[in-house]
Amino acid sequence: MELRHLKYFLAVAEELNFTKASEKLFISQPPLSRQIAELEEELQAKLFIRNNKKVELTEAGKYFEKETKELFQNLERISTKTKKIAENVSGEFRIAYISSIYSSVISDLIQHLKAQFPYVNFKLFEVSTTKQIDALEKGKIEMGIIRSPIHSPKIKSHLWFKDGFSLVYNKNTIQIKSENDILKLKDETFVFFNKDYAPHYHEVLLELCAFYGFSPKIIHEANNINSIVQLVKNGLGISIVPSNIAKNNPDSEIGFIELKKVNLFTNVSIITAKEDESEITRSAVEFLLPQRR
Predict the structure, then answer these.
(1) What region holds the HTH lysR-type domain (predicted)?
(2) Which of 5, 49, 148, 276 is disulfide-compatible with 56, CB 3.0–4.6 A?
(3) Band of the pLDDT at 243, cuts 50, 70, 90?
């Protein structure tokens, strides 16, 4: 199937007359009829009902017309955007990231890209891992920063860094000296990520607690790492967060203890569409990859 088959089909579908369609396409009628016949044969579906008086679309033809029109609209949109980005005239580049990634890194990335591509509009979205994968597959974002494994034939993944875990607590309400004292916290209130929002991460936290010999009493849940840390600071519980957060949180009221005994890590990865070879994407990935946390 070639684009010309689709163009010829749309012309006939619009005119519902082979003579008028052939005039519109500047070809004679026999080749047009032949092209439509080839298309029907390839699809193994009759697209038109033809008799001496009129031409009508079949139900299959009506469906094919709708989808083909959408296809051409998407092709036009893609062509226009590709041309604009290539010319560095305008365009939009959408980056999604998880809340547990330190914001200064994202800010540095945008500054780097803006210096290279001053006319491109960069947009940032804080989005969960599962929603990022879905958005990238549907073309709603150009790049994502996620945590946990990914299984998608449409996505290319670049490992950025492996992140460990740390216990986070309020120093004024919790007395703990080292990782060896964690079991003493088994009756404390825990603040976790919502399991529907980040199912893999939620399971890892449960696995961590099991390693230390207890099941956490989860009272509060949140969908944002900063909200979790704030709840801990307010004395509403303790939590386990990525060690990357501990390294970048200077708050004197909050304590962190890295969990070194358990051999559990999460992969923080940069994801892009498998077929995306744009200069902006390449520049973004190359900027981040050397900055292994």
Answers:
(1) 1-58
(2) 49
(3) confident
